[in-house]
Design brief:
The two termini are 36 Å apart. The protein has 146 residues and is an alpha+beta fold. It has helices at residues 25-35, 83-89, 137-144, and strands at residues 42-46, 49-53, 60-64, 67-72, 75-79, 95-99, 102-105, 109-113, 120-124, 129-132.
Length: 146
């Protein structure tokens, strides 16, 4: 791949042109990366300290007793956002809602157990087990290609 940059004062904002003989996976990746919005920051509170949480390290986000929690390998954090606000900030290709009260990171799933009737058991990388609610089962099956 060749990269060429031209500086011209006639342009008031950056313009990107991709030239290729065909639409390849590489071209699609470039377009996808260029069109992605910058990830929004999610911060969590643990032990009285506010920490910026990297999306790649999030395992699950869930609500319980009126609070929203984020779980990473480092531990559990309290968020000052509502679950739908967190969902808006998360990468939709990496995170999926599995119930009205929980969102999981698909990259942190160890396995999906479909043997339960009407629901799906999800084992996460940290050993936690959670369940997909009936309302979201068809969405998860579609993501899994089942």
């Amino acid at each position: 791949m060749q990269v060429e940059i031209k500086i011209d004062s006639a342009y008031t904002e950056p313009k990107i042109v991709v030239m290729a003989s065909a639409m390849t996976d590489e071209v699609q990746d470039i377009v996808r990366k260029l069109s992605e919005e910058a990830p929004q920051i999610i911060s969590g509170i643990r032990d009285g300290k506010v920490e910026v949480l990297e999306q790649e390290k999030l395992i699950r986000i869930f609500s319980n007793t009126g609070k929203v929690f984020a779980v990473t390998d480092k531990g559990e954090y309290v968020l000052r956002l509502r679950l739908y606000e967190v969902e808006e900030r998360l990468n939709p290709h990496r995170f999926v809602r599995i119930s009205n009260s929980e969102i999981i990171n698909l990259k942190k799933v160890s396995s999906f157990d479909l043997s339960f009737t009407g629901t799906i058991c999800v084992r996460l990388s940290n050993g936690a087990v959670t369940y997909v609610s009936r309302r979201y089962v068809s969405k998860i099956k579609k993501i899994l290609g089942i």
